[in-house]
Amino acid sequence: MKKLFVFVLFVFCMGGVAYMAVPCCAAMDAAVLAEVNGEAINKDNLQKKIKAIHRNKPQIRPEKGAGGIEVLDIVEEIIDERLIIQDAYRVELDRSADFIKNIDSYVTTQSVIILRKEVVLDKINISDQDILDYFKEHYEKDGPTPEVMFEKVEKRIKKNLRKEKEKELSDNFISELRKQADIWIDRDLINLLDPEKNYTGKKSVVASVNGDMISLDSFLYDMKQASQKWSRMYTLLKDKEQKEQLEKMQNDLKKEILDSQITYKLIEREALKRNYAKDPLFMKKVKERKEQILINEFKAKIIYPLTIPTKNELTRYYEDHIDDFKKGYEVWFKDMIFKTRKDAEKALKELKQGASFNFLAAQVSETWRPRQKAVWANADSFSPAIRKELNRLKAGEISEVIADNRQYKIIKLKGKRGGEPIEFSRVVDSLKKIVAQKNFDKMLSKYLAELRDVSTIRINKKALKLIEEKYRQKLPEETKTQVSP
């Protein structure tokens, strides 16, 4: 690992640039929140990061506070991501076959989505007369119905009409593509194929569409996946020796799969031919996709291989944390109980901001019985969800929100005692995950620290302060106050 860091330093130095961290710059554009080796981080980057945080952890808001996240913290995360992306490009992770295939697949998929919108969805037009005609045809067969009936089914009719028109437009579009296409199918080969057998032979193509090949492997894969759904029916027909019906089902299945693959090839080619990728917004989405893949690839290929724990590390962690690997131990804890996750998340946020557990529980918990003396209970007597948190927590710690049966709970562990250690061999898989994650976090932090040391990082603290103030002004009053311990 040390050699790798030295190499990073060497490469940067070879570029003839002296890198160092710069906290802020008065001349920096107000729209730019930070720069990483000359690459700007702007408000758009911040907004996307905040949305991602809300999506993954809806209880967290980017305001200052003991349990909150500061805008500066979010910008620091974006800086780390930018450093990873830059280094991923440096080591040419973007040139790997898997990366190129992944991006090509993304471009194709997004192009198909745009094509469908353009030639189908945007052309659907359902008028009031269409809805009325449908109502008369399907609901007034035996004479007029009350007007209230029309109001009840109007939305359903519109939905049905939309589906019908969507199918009609799709079928017509695909039919036109097929008319213009050069399609070749190896019927003899397809007739030989059995979904329950592995085929080996010299041939590797079952069909071609305008020169694009449909491979035998992809056809067999789809056929086997589809045949699994009909496995019981196949077995039943075999038992009854209904050979003709079985053959018909298999042939219908083959035709359906082949038609589907031909159709997608036609749509793919048409979507790519329209060159949506030249659109600036499309290019921006592709760039964002590339960056996210590069972050994942960097972690998987550069960091993870350096973090795989040895048996000595696993043994040492097991011995140092033997209390975390016990069965039959007893616990003493207090809990809050809620009917909805939203209420539980709100209480957890206040706890993270410093609220007193007992004081808050008395106000918001569905049931709360303050106890003067410790009441110990065997951890094995609780549900798996509760037990999982009890295993993780140490005395004095507060759990995350726990979904337990039809309730949501927050636990504060007061004490843990007794129990027998679980044998090393029985927890080795859990140990691997725990130690690998700790090694990964440590190695990633170390790597990022090294990258920061050889980079020019400028942060526009004035702009960040203005944004932070705006966020605090927009927050509801309840999020600005904290319950005192």
Describe this structure as you would to a colleague:
The chain is an alpha+beta fold. Among the domains are: 17-90 and 456-480, no CATH class; 326-421, Chitinase A, domain 3, CATH 3.10.50.40. 59% of the residues lie in helices and 11% in strands. It is built from 18 helices and 13 strands. The chain has helices at 2-14, 43-56, 71-90, 97-119, 128-139, 147-180, 187-192, 216-229, 231-239, 243-273, 280-303, 311-320, 341-352, 357-364, 384-392, 424-453, 461-474, 477-480; strands spanning 21-22, 32-36, 39-42, 183-185, 205-209, 212-215, 326-327, 330-338, 377-378, 402-404, 407-417, 420-421, 457-459. The chain has a 4-stranded mixed β-sheet with strand order 1-13-2-3. Strand 5 and strand 6 form a beta hairpin. Mean pLDDT is 83; it is low at 1-23, 58-68 and 477-485.
Radius of gyration: 31 Å
Strand order of the largest sheet: 1-13-2-3
Question: Number of helical runs?
Answer: 18
- What share of residues are in beta strands? 5-15%
Overall pLDDT metric: 83
The percent of residues in helical segments reads: 55-70%
Shape: extended
Total count of strands: 13
Please describe the biggest sheet, giving its number of strands, its sense, and whether it closes into a barrel: 4 strands, mixed
The SS-based structural class is alpha+beta
Quick structural summary:
The protein has 485 residues and is α+β, with helices and mostly antiparallel strands. The chain has helices at 2-14, 43-56, 71-90, 97-119, 128-139, 147-180, 187-192, 216-229, 231-239, 243-273, 280-303, 311-320, 341-352, 357-364, 384-392, 424-453, 461-474, 477-480; strands at 21-22, 32-36, 39-42, 183-185, 205-209, 212-215, 326-327, 330-338, 377-378, 402-404, 407-417, 420-421, 457-459.
